[in-house]
Amino acid sequence: CEWTLEHFLSMCWSSKVHSQLIKEAAMGLGFDRHLFALKLVAEKRGLTPALFSDPAYNAINQNILSTSTLASDYLELGAFGPVVHNGYGIGYSLWNDRLGCIITNYSGHSDGLGFLQALEESLNKIEKILKTLRPSHSSDD
Description:
Layout: H1 5-26, H2 31-44, H3 55-60, E1 65-69, E2 88-94, E3 99-105, H4 112-133
Parallel strand pairs: 1-2
Antiparallel strand pairs: 2-3
Helix pairs in contact: 1-4
């Protein structure tokens, strides 16, 4: 596949949107946390609003990917289990020249090896796009 400027710009845009979502979530602005808090308040009052038994609410709470960056000078890698039976727990660390991750899943409920292979393939494609289309930088950067 020949990588185009469109691939590069799409990846840059996606990264920008993702960064904004991370900032909003870190500030408690993720809608799912607000709904979760409302559910807890309702439960404490003995209420069961229809929203919380709606299939759509259940669907948005099926977090198949549960990820966490382990940004610390004292940790290389870490792991945790998936939050749903058919999901994956992914702990990852980033360095200047590499990344590492540990992927966990429940045997028989999801394909951990298949996920790892797809992740590796995706990361290799991203690397090719960046090497092909990113402006050259000196090795001092």
